[in-house]
What does this fold into?
Amino acid sequence: EEEVYDKQRYQANRDSIRKASKQYYQANRESILNAKKQYHEANRESILDAKKQYYEANRESILDARKQYYKANRESILDAKKQYREANRESRLNAMKQYYKANRESRLNAMKQYREANRDSRLNAMKQHHNTNRDSRLNAMKQHHEANRESVYEYQGDQYQDGE
It folds into this structure.
């Protein structure tokens, strides 16, 4: 009877261990499945969050880059306009300076030529005046000498007539 009791106790103990083991493995399996499910869910959410953050950061980065590009482009255009206007202004100033210099030189050359021509004209006029004046004086002197000679001849002729 004790043997039967031991056998029954052993059987009950064995059944209890099997049942406990089965419950343990069942609970462990469910726990593992839940843990896997939670892990995958958390991993999925983490991946989605990471993707969302990546796209958001990328979007902001693209917007910042675009903003910087447009700003740099605008500044570049403004600098180019400024340099163009400055160069154009300097070019116009240089052209004006060269124009006034050439105009001044042209007027100075014209004045020089005018003075030379006027000087030559005055010299020629003076020369002609002196020549005419000289010729006139020479003619007057010649006439005077001739008149004087004729007068002397007349006087001498009168003396010859009186002396006879």
